[in-house]
Design a protein that fits this description.
Oxidized Rhodanese, domain 1, alpha/beta, five-stranded parallel β-sheet
Length: 130
């Protein structure tokens, strides 16, 4: 853990190596969007990205993460989501400590996600499928 924290210097945070934007995320290949919100939040607003074949969504509440870590693949880029990035930051550190290497915090909140799923953006995705 000491070495991990030492690597998180000014350059690391200044370059945003710990985050990925929703715009960048939808352009990436082989992505797992890990939703660490509570069950109540997930039941209220579900995140699926059903028309984005490059993104698989998985909901694991932060408090269940230690017991369900085996469900998370190491074969995908992992973007972690919660609306205020607090739980996402905790999950980020936890996954790094568990030796997951390609992990980032999804930058922004619900508003940032809404921007990439507006009708025009989804229409372009659907057009590219055909």
């Amino acid at each position: 853990m000491d070495q991990l924290i030492r690597s998180m210097n000014f350059e690391f945070f200044g370059e945003g190596r710990h985050k990925v934007t929703p715009d960048a995320l939808i352009e990436m290949k082989n992505v797992l969007l890990l939703d660490v919100r509570s069950r109540v939040e997930s039941e209220t607003i579900s995140i699926t990205f059903a028309h984005h074949q490059n993104i698989t969504c998985m909901h694991i509440p932060l408090d269940e993460l230690p017991d369900r870590i085996g469900e998370i693949t190491r074969e995908k880029f992992i973007a972690i989501f919660c609306p205020a990035n607090v739980r996402a930051s905790i999950a980020y550190m936890y996954l790094l400590l568990k030796r997951f290497s390609d992990v980032r915090i999804l930058d922004g909140s619900y508003e940032a996600l809404v921007e990439v799923v507006k009708p025009g953006a989804v229409w372009r995705v659907l057009q590219n499928k055909g």
